[in-house]
């Protein structure tokens, strides 16, 4: 339908094949369901060899597509003298979306689901509908669970936020989904002509054995995380990166980023370069005051050491067990980029790409100055 459909990143398998064609070293991290490999790619050829690779991860939440696309663009033309380690897509099943993942699960190929009715029919045909009320349908098909929403359902305002708030209020559903990944359709107004059941749809929701409802940027402090989280944790433990970029998107229409503890302590030159470049290129920032109402956090929960840079206020709040927090505990400075999903995807990609390129250039400068 659009030129996006021609690109390798619209299908996880094609994306990792495209990384391979760049000649990057493939690192197996594990496998999730449907025998789907979780992989990283290292660009070993680099002028600077005496530093750990800079880790660039993307795709924890499928709808935050600008991250996956930005990582791919950097892999194609790094413009960086150090080594780079890419995790192209942290959630392959969610990234591929409901149509392709359900199709793989049932041996049917891509099901090309377009409507709520088609999705529910497919769920009924291949599995068991466990909830159907007021336009929300949840179904279990083998080891996976799937969601669909009637177009009139208010949860369409943000499908991922909606279901993560809904499930904990329904213990019977939490019970039925224990240990399962729930594939969530995309938010219609962010789909830009794509099917909400297609690639880059809603963020996969994971319900762990204890009944905790979360997603793939949670569970990093869990003893029994999903393999998507465990694999990334092990990679970070092994590589011990000094610098990490985890590419996300969030509410609003501007750019911002979360800085973890080490990023606050020694990464000011990096986050300032990212923010200054985004502003100089004419992109808006999402200031902390703009963001807080969406997060439902009290004033003072986050601090803003620089415009558009957020960090957990250690005196006020326990930060979530996200990847950035996990890498912080090993001393790695992590910048979790957050572009505003209310902008068109192409625009979000440009903002995220210039920010990350400015960030890695600033790291290079710190290396040259012997300050990092
Ligand atoms: Zn995210």
Report on this structure.
- By secondary structure, this protein is an alpha/beta fold.
- It has two domains: 3-91 and 221-368, Aminopeptidase; 93-215, no CATH class.
- Helices cover 36% and strands 22% of the residues.
- It is built from twelve helices and 15 strands.
- The strands form two sheets. A nine-stranded mixed β-sheet has the order 1-2-4-3-11-15-12-14-13, with helices on both faces. A six-stranded mixed β-sheet has the order 5-6-7-8-9-10, sandwiched between helices.
- A hairpin with a 2-residue loop joins strand 6 and strand 7.
- Helix 2 (65-76) packs across helix 12 (345-368) and helix 9 (268-280) crosses helix 12 (345-368).
- The longest helix is centred in the C-terminal third of the chain and has 24 residues, at 345-368.
- Bound molecules: zinc ion.
- Zinc ion is lined by residues 60-61, 64, 217, 248.
- Residues 60-61, 64, 217, 248 line the site of zinc ion.
Q: Which structural class do the helices and strands define?
A: alpha/beta
Average predicted confidence as pLDDT:
95
Give the strand order of the largest sheet, numbering strands 1, 2, ... along the chain: 1-2-4-3-11-15-12-14-13
In percent, how much strand structure appears in the residues? 15-25%
Individual helix count = 12
Distinct ligands: zinc ion
Shape: globular
């Amino acid at each position: 339908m659009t030129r996006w459909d021609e690109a390798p990143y619209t299908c996880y398998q094609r994306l990792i094949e495209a990384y391979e064609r760049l000649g990057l070293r493939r690192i197996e991290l594990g496998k999730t369901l449907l025998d789907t490999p979780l992989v990283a790619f290292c660009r070993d050829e680099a002028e600077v060899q005496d530093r750990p690779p800079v880790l660039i991860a993307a795709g924890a939440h499928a709808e935050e597509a600008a991250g996956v696309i930005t990582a791919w663009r950097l892999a194609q033309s790094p413009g960086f003298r150090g080594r780079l380690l890419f995790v192209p897509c942290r959630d392959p099943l969610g990234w591929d979306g409901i149509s392709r993942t359900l199709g793989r699960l049932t041996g049917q190929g891509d099901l090309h689901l377009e409507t709520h009715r088609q999705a529910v029919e497919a769920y009924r045909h291949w599995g068991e509908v466990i909830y159907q009320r007021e336009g929300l349908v949840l179904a279990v098909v083998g080891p996976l669970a799937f969601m669909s929403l009637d177009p009139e359902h208010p949860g369409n305002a943000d499908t991922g936020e909606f279901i993560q708030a809904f499930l904990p209020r329904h213990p019977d559903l939490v019970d039925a989904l224990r240990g399962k990944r729930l594939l969530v359709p995309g938010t219609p107004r962010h789909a830009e002509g794509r099917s909400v059941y297609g690639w880059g749809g809603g963020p996969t929701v994971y319900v762990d054995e204890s009944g905790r409802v979360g997603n793939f940027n949670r569970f990093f402090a869990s003893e029994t995380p999903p393999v998507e989280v465990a694999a990334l944790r092990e990679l970070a433990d092994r590589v011990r990166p000094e610098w990490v970029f985890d590419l996300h998107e969030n509410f609003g229409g501007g750019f911002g980023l979360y800085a973890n503890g080490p990023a606050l302590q020694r990464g000011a030159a990096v986050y300032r370069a990212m923010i200054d470049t985004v502003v100089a290129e004419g992109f808006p920032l999402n200031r902390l005051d703009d963001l807080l109402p969406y997060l439902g956090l009290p004033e003072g929960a986050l601090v803003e050491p620089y415009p558009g840079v957020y960090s957990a206020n250690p005196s006020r709040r326990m930060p979530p067990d996200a990847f950035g927090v996990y890498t912080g505990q090993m001393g790695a400075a992590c910048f979790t980029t957050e572009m505003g999903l209310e902008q068109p995807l192409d625009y979000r990609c440009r903002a995220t790409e210039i920010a990350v390129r400015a960030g890695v250039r600033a790291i290079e400068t710190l290396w040259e100055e012997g300050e990092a």
